[in-house]
Write a structure and sequence with these properties.
The complex is a heterodimer of chains A (about 190) and B (about 550). Chain A is mainly α and about 190 residues long. Chain A has helices at about 5-20, 40-45, 45-50, 60-80, 90-95, 95-105, 115-130, 135-140, 145-150. Helix content of chain A is about 45%, strand content about 0%. In chain A, helix 1 (about 5-20) crosses helix 4 and helix 1 crosses helix 6 (about 95-105). The mean pLDDT of chain A is about 95. In chain B, about 25% of the residues lie in helices and about 20% in strands. Chain B is built from 13 helices and 19 strands. In chain B, a hairpin with a 5-residue loop joins strand 7 and strand 8. The model of chain B has no long low-confidence stretch (mean pLDDT about 95). Classes of the chains: A mainly alpha (about 190), B alpha/beta (about 550). At the A-B interface, helix 6, helix 7 and helix 9 of A face helix 5, strand 5, helix 9 and helix 11 of B. The complex binds flavin-adenine dinucleotide. Flavin-adenine dinucleotide (FAD) binds near residues 78 and 86 of chain B.
């Protein structure tokens, strides 16, 4: 294994983020990203930047996360008689389906560490679905993979969203018979 | 030694409960100070931006509990600044509920008829107005059409929104930039300030103690304006009357922390918490079927693809709000927008959306579902839950241990839904799914409680009013049992789930509590009168309640 702890940490966290929202490999031989899905996933969306930002509040816990995730991966591999590439951090060495299964296990109801893993997943998710580490307009302009894939439209030039056309504009159902003038039920 | 600061009335929190109380007492002549934990933002500071540190996170509080998470406001104006401004009145049967205490939960003095004049006062003050179908955005229209297609009714929901100014930007949760939302920053709070009330933002109240003269001393910390994990100086203010309105997730915690010095709290403080039976169903609409079955189109070839357009809840199905049905089987199904970043993670990939073995809240199939985000429609269930929430021992400060600079914290609330609640959710899930999936309109799935537990933006009942001292913390005048001069006027006073959005009822109850608080203040030597008009000077609501007050 690479003796550089930073490298191990990055590979492990990237592999976790890529399990939460999978994406395509950035270059041939990209081991962190499993390449299970076309287009960028959480990693390309900036998950590492968000996780390492002190405002998010997980930065000081990341080393513990990496250690524990790899411990789980080692144990999982042993239980399933999988041999892991010794040059990679154990979680990163797992194939995508196995990573997914392991994340499912540690986030399942009743798992003692569930809350911690859901929290880590939440921030990976937020990097993808809201780019919480960037101004939204900048993220859209830069082609952020999550916001782009979800179809979030750019704002008006002043940075604000408005939708002048917004209603089908006609009655679409009968009102409840007990509706009063206040708009509430009798 | 520093001199002791004093006021007549100290209000904790500036949401519905706090702002309404502050206005009436200040207008009546009392000295009023409001301590608010969050910052005070002006209209131009409300940003359209998901970045941590923008108004979207500065004015919010998200407290993770065990089985229940609470999302609320954290700013001057409280939940009214972040809310969706749907303001329906609670249905008549709500006031007759027994919950699981085997007797009527609400005080005998309150039913829908008794509350009606107070609802009218709030409707005049904010003001609350009805919506026409032209005010209903595409998602609301789609929900109405789907309800109609399955033989149901559907109602545009009354709102505290100036429909003419609303641009349907769907950024209401970050604060309204267009002056369309009638938050408390546009009515009660400026009126309170005009009458001399003083608002102090970034003051987080920690506990209350007693003074020698029978009053109370309120202890606060000054919060950092940007990183709420940091706090500065502490201070105290003495008051003759304390009004707690920190919200149902925070008010009981302040009382719990005060217990060692104030003396025993009523049993119900920090118990009987309700999430208003809230839960979301996410549907991915089949655009073609929506066109063919419901005949909808936006006039430019697009059928729907408009999840992002609009303004929160526009249309509700109220067919199950029928008092003749048994308790725990009555609920409303309301269309809702929930933005990315907060709740997207909880949306479940519906079964039947293609080959989807594997997890349904993350991973491959969830990423595919996110690609269809514009075709999502979210339905908000509000069922009758069984008040299962209980707060554990208070954290060192505030109501949570903060994790992120803003927003995210870990609180002590435990919520373990009982079978009655689970059955009610299952029934509402099935009903919503049936409407949405009829004739192939959509694939729909309810949020799972398995990921983070339930999630509420409508915390209620952690310090509730009632006639029975064993199951209520407050008497029907909202005075804390055993602690005269302390009143609670926020959502924690509401006895239980309402099956509709609660702010209208929280506000009406606060209005109703004011004459009693004025009387208590007068008994304590404060020269204060009851009878202010609406914040904008309107008086028809006042005339409606003056009769009742006079008769007391
Ligand atoms: C996203 C969202 C959408 C919503 N939409 C709707 C809707 O459409 N219709 C509806 O009826 N309801 C809606 N609600 C719910 C509604 O906002 C609340 O029910 C309502 O605001 C509760 O009023 P309250 O007075 O109990 O407390 P709040 O309005 O929450 O006010 C409590 C205040 O106390 C402050 N505080 C907390 N602790 C302390 C402390 N220790 N010291 C000092 N201050 C403190 C808080 O910062 C807050 O400002 C929504 C809520 C959210 C979050």
């Amino acid at each position: 294994m690479d003796s550089d702890g930073t490298h191990e940490r990055t590979l492990t966290l990237e592999a976790f983020a890529d399990t939460v929202v999978p994406g395509e490999k950035r270059f041939p031989g990209d081991v962190a990203i499993a390449g299970a899905s076309a287009g960028g996933g959480a990693v390309a969306a900036g998950a590492l930047t968000l996780l390492e930002w002190d405002s998010a509040g997980l930065d000081k816990a990341l080393d513990d996360y990496v250690r524990d995730l790899n411990a789980h991966a080692r144990q999982y591999a042993a239980e399933h008689r999988l041999s892991l590439d010794p040059t990679l951090p154990p979680f990163t060495a797992l194939p995508f389906e196995r990573r997914t299964e392991l994340v499912t296990l540690v986030t399942a109801p009743g798992h003692p560490e569930k809350e911690l893993w859901v929290l880590l997943a939440l921030f990976c998710y937020m990097a993808y679905d809201s780019a919480a580490h960037m101004h939204t307009a900048d993220a859209i302009a830069a082609g952020h993979p999550g916001l782009t894939s979800m179809g979030i439209t750019p704002p008006d030039p002043d940075g604000l969203w408005r939708y002048p056309k917004n209603s089908y504009g006609r009655p679409l159902a009968r009102l409840h018979p007990d509706t009063t003038a206040s708009g509430s039920l009798r | 030694m520093t001199s002791v600061e004093r006021t007549d009335v100290l209000v904790v929190g500036s949401g519905f409960g706090g702002a309404i109380a502050a206005y009436h007492l200040a207008a009546g002549g009392a000295d009023v100070v409001i301590l608010e934990r969050g910052p005070w933002l002006a209209e131009e500071e409300f940003e359209h931006d998901y970045k941590l540190g923008s108004s979207y996170t500065r004015i919010f509080d998200f407290t993770v509990g065990d089985g229940m998470n609470i999302l609320g406001g954290n700013c001057v104006g409280g939940g009214s600044v972040v809310y969706f401004a749907a303001m329906p009145r609670a249905p008549r049967f709500i006031f007759e509920r027994h919950g699981d205490i085997g007797r009527r939960m609400w005080p005998a003095s309150i039913d829908r008829d008794a509350l009606e004049p107070w609802y009218d006062r709030v409707a005049e003050a904010l003001p609350v107005s009805t919506q026409g179908w032209e005010d209903v955005s595409y998602p609301g229209g789609l929900w109405a059409a789907a309800c109609n297609h399955s033989g149901r009714t559907a109602n545009p929901v009354p709102v505290a929104i100036d429909n003419d100014r609303c641009v349907q930007c769907n950024w209401m949760m970050a604060g309204c930039r267009f002056g369309a939302k009638r938050s408390l920053l546009t009515n009660y709070l400026p009126a309170a300030i005009a009458h001399g009330a003083e608002v102090r933002p970034l003051h987080e109240v920690q506990r209350i103690s007693r003074t020698d003269d029978g009053g109370y001393r309120v202890h606060y910390d000054i919060m950092d304006g940007e990183d709420y994990r940091l706090r500065g100086d502490s201070g105290t203010i003495d008051a003759k009357i304390v009004i707690l309105a920190a919200g149902a997730g925070a008010t009981p915690v302040i009382l719990q922390r005060s217990e060692p010095v104030l003396g025993p709290m009523p049993h119900a403080v920090g118990r009987y918490f309700s999430g208003n039976g809230e839960r979301l169903v996410t549907a991915v609409m089949n655009e073609e079927r929506v066109r063919d079955v419901l005949g909808l189109d936006r006039g430019d070839g697009t059928v729907y693809e408009a999840f992002h357009i609009g303004k929160g809840p526009c249309v509700a199905n109220w067919d199950r709000l029928d008092g003749s049905l048994p308790e725990f089987s009555r609920y409303s199904l309301e269309q809702l927008y929930f933005p990315p970043g907060l709740g997207t993670i909880l949306a479940q990939v519906p079964g039947g959306m293609g080959p989807v073995p594997g997890p349904s809240w993350f991973g491959l199939s969830k990423k595919e579902m996110l690609k269809r985000w514009k075709s999502w429609l979210i339905i908000f269930e509000m069922i009758e839950d069984a008040n299962e929430g209980v707060f554990g021992p208070p954290p060192p400060s505030g109501n949570a241990v903060r994790i992120s600079q803003q927003m995210l914290g870990r609180g002590t609330l435990r919520y373990d839904p009982k079978p009655s609640t689970l059955r009610a959710w299952a029934q509402a899930d099935a009903d919503a799914k049936e409407i949405l999936e009829r004739d192939g309109l959509a694939h729909a799935e309810a949020w799972s409680n398995d990921v983070v537990g339930a999630y509420t933006v409508h915390p209620l009942a952690s310090c509730r009013i009632g006639d029975d001292p064993a199951t209520s913390a407050l008497d029907d005048r909202h005075e804390l049992r055993g602690h005269p001069g302390i009143f609670v006027t926020d959502g924690s006073a509401v006895p239980g789930a309402l099956t509709v959005n609660p702010a209208m009822t929280i506000a009406a109850l606060a209005e109703r509590a004011i004459p009693g608080i004025v009387a208590a203040a007068r008994e304590r030597g404060v020269e204060v009168q009851y009878g202010a008009p609406a914040p904008d000077g309107g008086t028809s609501g006042r005339l409606g309640v003056m009769n009742i007050v006079g008769r007391r």
